[in-house]
Amino acid sequence: MSSETALATGPRARGLAPFLRSQMRNIAPFLTLICLFTFFAFASPSFATLDNLGNILTQVSITGIIAVGLTFVILCAEIDLSIAAIANVTGIAVAYFTLQESYVNIANVPLPGAVAILLSILLCALLGLVNALGLTVIGIPSFIMTLAMMQIAAGISALLVRGQIAYKVPSLITTLGSGSIGGIPWLVIIAALMLLGGHLVLTYTRFGRYVYMVGGNREAAEYSGLNVKLILGAVMVISAVCSGIGGMLGVAHFGSAQQNEFDTYLLDSIAAVVVGGTSLFGGRGGIGNTIVGLFVLGVLNNGLDHVNIDSFLKILIRGLILLAALIINVYAQRLREKAAE
Amino acid sequence: MPEGQQPILELQGITKSFGGVEALRGVDFALCPGEIHGLVGENGAGKSTLMKIIAGVHTEFSGRFLVDGRETHFRSARDAHAAGIAMVHQELSVAPDLTVAENVFLGNQPTNRLGLVQWRRMAREAGEQLARFGIDVDPMSRLGDLPIGLQQLIEIARVLFSGARIVILDEPTSALSPPEVERLFATLKRLREEGTAIVFISHFIEDILRVSDTVTVFRNGRKVAETASAATSKSALIEAMIGRGGEALEHSYADDLMLPRPSESAVILKAEQLSLGRSLNDVSFEARAGEVLGIYGFMGCGQQELSRILFGKLKPDGGTLAVEGRPKTFASTAAARRAGVALVPESRRDMLFHQEPVYKNISISILDRISSLLLKPGQERDIAKRQVEQLQIRPPVVGLDLGMLSGGNQQKVALAKWLTYPPKLLVLCEPTRGMDVGAKNDVINIVRDLRTKGLAIIVLSTEPETVLSLADRILVLKRGALVREFRNEPVSKDRLLEAA
User: Fold this and answer.
1) A16 CB near a chain B CB, below 8 Å?
2) Which of A93, A304, B299, B389 has the most CB atoms less than 10 A away?
3) CA distance A70 to A240
4) Among A194, A183, A188, which Cα is nearest to A244's?
5) Pairwise CB contact (< 8 Å): B375 & A204
């Protein structure tokens, strides 16, 4: 490689095709989104309306809040399977610490709203910390560790509600989960703020850079003197806290707190992150990708309701779309490696 | 090339570029059966690129490619393999979690009619093959448990005995001890007798001259010379490689070299009675400011483990470390870095981020110095530009992905990471391994410059030349124990080899 030619040609002079190939990860999900949107817009007159757009936004908000933390985890090439269960237990906890109507048969502990919220956040942070310790100190792979945590959190949920349903949550949570301001649901605003916050942290802070570097090459991160365990631990806690916030607002949004009400959010959140193009092998992607992924899922779920389709077939179609996205994810990785050659 | 013989492989006018940077320009290359063909050239001269084209790793290039006189185009390494071409890459590519036998038969394990692996047959045949190569190991042991040098030998053995007609060896000797090199050469010569064509890439020009029939020199993506090995000399080859008078650059270290009087300056690191399993046993030494301490020993003597202990990557079973008189137990590499210790490991893959730009690679270890919370990309780039300029990293584009740089330049980036805010103690493992003469000299000058600035530097190497060219004081590590210290006395390659 001679220096003269190298001087003359910067990375920009590589031509369009290799650039597009290296950006496949970002382009493919976006194209998917446009295709889906166009399809449903033609297939159903009620789909491409402002009202329905608002619906989609609201529908993806809770997934979005949970996916913020999960994006950090997946960028580090780890996984968190306990997100839905932690969301559930945090939502139940905040109801547990709120005074319920007399007909609710739960032995709950009524506390002031602020204390209830604080305790619930502490609970999810604590569960995240257990994940973190299991992963970094003991060395349990995150897949297994969070699988165990999924059970543990579900177990705590079960013990708190004992098969009953609670309805009341602190008024702040009620407002943020089901209220709106100027016609925009608070839930959407919170989701947008958290996604924005996640993006800023990942892009502009030192911690964000560390997350990408640990995901890109963990060994190299360690040889660069980064505290890899601390960073991995931090992302597990961040993931749990995001899940907890999603869970509390979700309970207010649904109007009830009960066992298993967040189960679908596990797959949806993972799908949103991965469909958006964040690499399962770590180090590539980000919140921007997650947002596109959220909309792909949101448009898909919502659009399938607008066209006349067998509701059981919907599940299969979602599965197939997820598979397609995973295939693209793996190919995008390969194309990028080729472009870098 | 032997006269009048039909080449088994012929390449004409091969040109290959990576993202606008030409790595090969109109190269002709021919290989005959029963020939050992040596390739030399500086890092990034195009040797490895040409070999990867032959081995089907790079599939996009221009020029004619003929196998047995027929024009061929490989679409993958598999195609090349089917055509009887096998390559041992510079970086070890083995499956450490599989057994030795499985590694030897990787991809074509013997199976019975039901498709089940015939373990006993596989183990027996693997053992026999390795024995032919002079390797005596249990074929059923896990490969990753063996020393790196042995792993490399097993990988080479696998390729040599795969029945390939053309075997490409890219820097095969860099991780081998002298007796292992002898065994490799004997095997190569035997295969030559059997008609195998062998390409041998090495920075050890003596090795090339000893074992090859023909030698080709690359410079800047061009073939600049091809001669019979018997008709050339080391200095002639070096001159062709770098295009300037070579004698002064390469020191043979055959004669005695006088080590300076031991430094009286402050002790930066004191290691006492370090031990680790079977790898290290009661190792004690000091590293002083403004002194380069060389630690020499054969592959597997415990160097690697020692360097990892100094950087907090491994925990010793026993012994103590003290930095500037304060006892330290490094719980993590981060703790070692905070205490002022820096490590450049022997494998570039281990410490660089290939998919990230050069500047992020350089700034990663000093981010906490230049930003508390928010990143300062402008400052990162400025720092990187200074380092790239100072270390003459090519191409000098800090936004380029690291993976697009040549091996030697990547090594310089690995060093550049630590130089903006120099540590108190710099531990370098094989700092010049796999580098050409010019880059080697660059690194030697950088290290000397750092010594003048008062850093304590420890250089660990299995190449006597590396230690001799850098060290003020030399320790010899043998089977995990320090057996000899050279200080204020004459030392030479012979004396070092003798002590180890």
Assistant:
1) no
2) A93
3) 9
4) A194
5) yes
Torsion angle in degrees (nearest 10) through CA of B366, B368, B370, B372: 170
pLDDT, residue A13, reads 44
Residue B257 structure tokens: 């070299």
Return the amino acid letter for B118: Q
The residue type found at B200 is F
Q: What is the CATH number of the domain that holds A228?
A: 1.10.3470
Q: Please answer yes or no on whether A226 and B397 come within 8 Å at the CB atom.
A: no
Size of the A and B interface in Cβ pairs below 8 Å: 126
Residue showing tokens 């490696």: A337
Does B114 score more than 60 pLDDT?
Answer: yes
CB B266 within 8 A of CB B424: no
Chain A residues whose CB is inside 8 A of the B334 CB are: 225-227, 230
Q: What residue of B is the nearest CA neighbor of A282?
A: B355
Domains and CATH numbers, chain B: 9-242 (3.40.50.300), 257-499 (3.40.50.300)
Domains: count for chain A: 1
What span, in angstroms and rounded, lies between the C-alpha atoms of B387 and B296? Answer: 29
ipTM reported for the complex, 2 dp: 0.81
Contact partners, residue A102, CB within 8 Å, separation at least 6: none
pLDDT band at B252 (very low <50, low <70, confident <90, very high): low
Separation between Cα atoms, residue B135 and residue A202, nearest integer Å? 50
β B456-461/B291-296 pair status: parallel
Contacts of B52 (CB under 8 A, 6+ apart): B58, B87
Report the DSSP beta bridge partners of residue B270.
Answer: B286, B322
In a domain, A195, yes or no: yes
Assess if residue A77 is contained within a domain.
yes
Task: Name the burial class of residue A251, with classes exposed (0-12), middle (13-18) and buried (19+) by CB atoms within 10 angstroms of its CB.
Answer: buried
Short-list A204, A81, A94, A188, CA closest to A144: A81
Question: Which tokens sit at B320?
Answer: 């103590």
- Give the closest residue to A287 by CA, choosing from A331, A250, A317, A242: A242
pLDDT class for B212, splitting at 50, 70, 90? very high
CB B254 within 8 A of CB B433: no
With bands split at pLDDT 50, 70 and 90, how would you rate the model's confidence at A85? very high
pLDDT tens string B93-102: 778 888 888 8
Residue for token digits 């709950």? A108
